[in-house]
Design goal:
alpha+beta; homodimer; 3-stranded antiparallel β-sheet; DNA-binding; about 15% strand; about 100 residues
DNA sequence: TGAACATATGAATAACTGTTCATATGTTAA
DNA sequence: TTAACATATGAACAGTTATTCATATGTTCA
């Protein structure tokens, strides 16, 4: 696959990687590796403000990396895509040499 | 692999994805998919300033995504790592649904 | 040595991004 | 309806980043 994608696609591709390029979002995604979690659970697990987590979850959701399920007052987030784990593990391989 | 990596590793991981999260750098990497290219060749292929390309090549090199070979006045850049293509293709899979 | 070329670097600027604080929306149970 | 809770949103701020311009380094050939 040596064809260079359309510029439009390249911008989208860069956008996807940008989403992975923040440690808070990576930590959120790792938290979801074990299964769905509510906003409060994630915030507590990471020791961060609910508001921060909520903002970042929106970024993840806009980019279709996570999906939601409402259950009463809570909203449960989970990974939306099989690629998510694979992309992160590829990146980790690179970091670990 | 559900263990969350050390925070230190997570920061490095985020840094790696940040490098992929820019369309200019992605275009440079794609240009190198076919083999090594000089700075001037890359700049011309992308229609951008040599200086811009040089700055971005340094980012790519610092993060060990490309390596160099000097030949006379030119410096030839090439992909340093098999992961590079794989990571990009994984991301592309996600973008293309 | 010098001129011409290829690449790198530093400073400056504009645009973008993550977090916080304050406030709003939406849900449940009384 | 109200109170209490869970989550979302908007504005503001500080920090980061990509590009440009100007200049420097390094290489070749005469």
């Amino acid at each position: 696959m040596n064809n260079i994608p359309e510029l439009e696609i390249l911008f989208e591709l860069a956008d996807v990687f940008k989403v992975f390029g923040d440690s808070t979002r990576l930590r959120i995604l790792y938290t979801l590796f074990d299964g769905e979690r509510s906003v409060g659970e994630i915030a507590e697990a990471l020791g961060m403000e609910h508001s921060t987590i909520s903002h970042q979850l929106r970024v993840l959701r806009t980019n279709k990396l996570v999906k939601i399920r409402r259950d009463g007052k809570q909203i449960y987030y989970s990974l939306d895509d099989d690629h998510v784990k694979k992309i992160i593990e590829m990146g980790l391989d690179h970091v670990l040499e």
